[in-house]
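Side project, low priority. Logging it here so it doesn't get lost.
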Amino acid sequence: MYQKITIVGNLGRDPEMRYTPSGQAVTNLNVATNRQYTSNSGETIKETTWFRVSVWGKQAEASNQYLKSGSKVLVEGRMNQDKETGGPRVWTRNDGSPGASFEITAQTVRFLSSRQEDQAAAASGGGVNSGGANYGAGNAMEPPQEDEIPF
C-alpha cells in the first residue's frame, strides 16, 4: 500500500531545526492551508487547516536556511497518524474550542515564494495569508534563477 499527500500553504512561524543524536538534521515546519468559499446563505467562509511537517537531511538544512514565517511552500510526503488516537493530533484551544493538526513527513519541499515576497512578508510582520491563497499566480511558480537555487 502507498499514500502520498501534497499541500500548498504558508509557514505560520519560522522553521525550527535540530539534529538527532546520530547527526541527522530535522526541521519542523507549521504550514497553514487556506480555503475560502461562499455558503448557500451567501456568507463567506474561511477555513484554515494546519499541518505539522518534518523535513529530514539536506532538505531540512535548506528549509531552515531559506524559509521563514509567511513563506509559501509546496510539500509532498506521507501522513502520520497520532499514535494515541489513530487520527490527527487533537487539542483544546485557549477559548475552549477543539483544534486539530495533521502530521506529514516530507519527501519534497518546494519553495514558492520569491526573495522579494519573503522580504515583503517580513517587513509587514510575516504570518499566514488568512484570505484565499492565490497560489501559482505571478512569479511564485516560475523557476528560480540559477544563483537562487538553494541546493
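Brief comment: Confidence is low (pLDDT under 50) at residues 127-151.
Revisit when time allows.
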